[in-house]
Amino acid sequence: MLLPTLARTALARAAARPAAAAAGSQVGAVRFLNLHEYQSAQIMKDAGVNVPFGLPAHTVDEAVQAAAEIGDEQVVIKSQILAGGRGLGKFTNGLQGGVHIIDSKETKDYAEKMLGGTLVTKQSGPAGKPVNTLLLAKKMSLAKEFYFAIFMDRGSGGPLIIACSEGGTSIEDLAESSPEKIVKVPVDITTGPTLEQIETVVNGLGCSGDKAAAGEQIQALYNLFIDKDCTMVEVNPLAEDTDGNLIAADAKIGFDDNAEFRQKDVFAQRDHTQEDPREVAAGKWDLNYIGLDGNIGCMVNGAGLAMSTMDIISLRGGSPANFLDVGGSANVDQIKAAFEIITTDPAVKAILVNIFGGIMKCDIIAEGIIEASKALDLKVPVVVRLEGTNVERGKQLLEESGLDLITADDLDDAAAKAVAAIS
């Protein structure tokens, strides 16, 4: 697959949150910061990449002013959401398309319909994404449209440049219909792309203008990928104007969260309104949460155990509502926060707690479960399976709590009881 799908993103984000040193805090390998097009365009411009002139607008008045500053009879008005497929998307208010070429005098009407609306695309999920910002861009005279991207590739162990002579549309569809048009160039991260590799990319795109200048743009995009600690730079389309110049007409950039300490200016631009609020809350508590569409909430320590728990729930005929890894050194407050996050999902009809105590001690989990149950007045069944360090003390605390908790001897038993609790 060429593009990060929802499932691929979930797996990347669920990748092990390594057990922290007993005295240290947890730092998860979560790689999912994305920026809006207008933010990405400014970063690209600063890196020497050609981008169309454009101005962001957060209000209708700002949109009208931006169109006036561009000064052309027509402008491009683009919804800013963190999902692809905007052009073919649809607003919940009925407006078709999140990207339009319009007469400048129509800016006010379109901005009123788009700002504050919810845009649903193939990649946004059925709930869609809120449009709080528009990008007003200069209409370009484009002769050709290409696809260009750089991803971190597990197979080659480094950056992978992907280029296609057709762009401006779904690369997944092109991969199915015309795979021969797609060029893949693995790059040695220690040396960067060679001149021959850049030439391969330029030829694969089918550039008809100055090949040397095109190569400089490819190099600039690669430098951006490395210098900004990116996990993805996707330009669709990477276009060629009537003078043969390459222009990044639309772009998405993803960044490695582990590099936040040295990319503070980038991470300061994060838009939390585009993220699941439960995931934002989990991040504040150093928990690893991914919302799913089932009805059995899961609280587990360790990514592998969490995924196994979800598998066994499914095997037993249930459906997990989330992935939630509390890690190896969570405290009582974090356990309580985990319950709060799980129960904000109205679809959750039961909760399964599956803890294998290593660094994480079962009595700490038990204390958190007891405190959360009392404080939150939980209305759904809670199934608890504990094993490992201080397990007997943990079980004793649960038994003496007086709470209506369902205990389980092993994971299979726990999954069966969780499914039965909502049947």
Tag the structure with descriptive keywords.
423 residues, alpha+beta, seven-stranded antiparallel beta sheet, 14 helices, 20 strands, 24% strand, elongated, disordered N terminus
Fold and architecture overview:
The structure is a single chain. This protein is an alpha+beta fold. The chain has 14 helices and 20 strands. The strands form 5 sheets. Strands 1, 9, 10, 11, 12, 13 and 14 form a 7-stranded antiparallel β-sheet that branches. A hairpin with an 8-residue loop joins strand 6 and strand 7. Helix 6 packs across helix 7, helix 11 crosses helix 12 and helix 12 runs parallel beside helix 13. The two termini are 38 Å apart.
Regions with pLDDT < 50 over 5+ consecutive residues?
A: 1-31
Query: What is the helical fraction, as a range of percent?
Result: 25-40%
Question: Globular, elongated, flat, extended or rod-shaped: what is the shape?
Answer: elongated
Rounded radius of gyration (Å):
25 Å
Oligomer: single chain
Q: Count of helical segments?
A: 14
Assign the structural class, choosing from mainly alpha, mainly beta, alpha/beta, alpha+beta, or little secondary structure: alpha+beta
Distance between the termini: 38 Å
User: Beta-strand percentage?
Assistant: 15-25%
- Number of beta strands: 20
* Main β-sheet description: 7 strands, antiparallel
Average of the residue pLDDT scores: 88
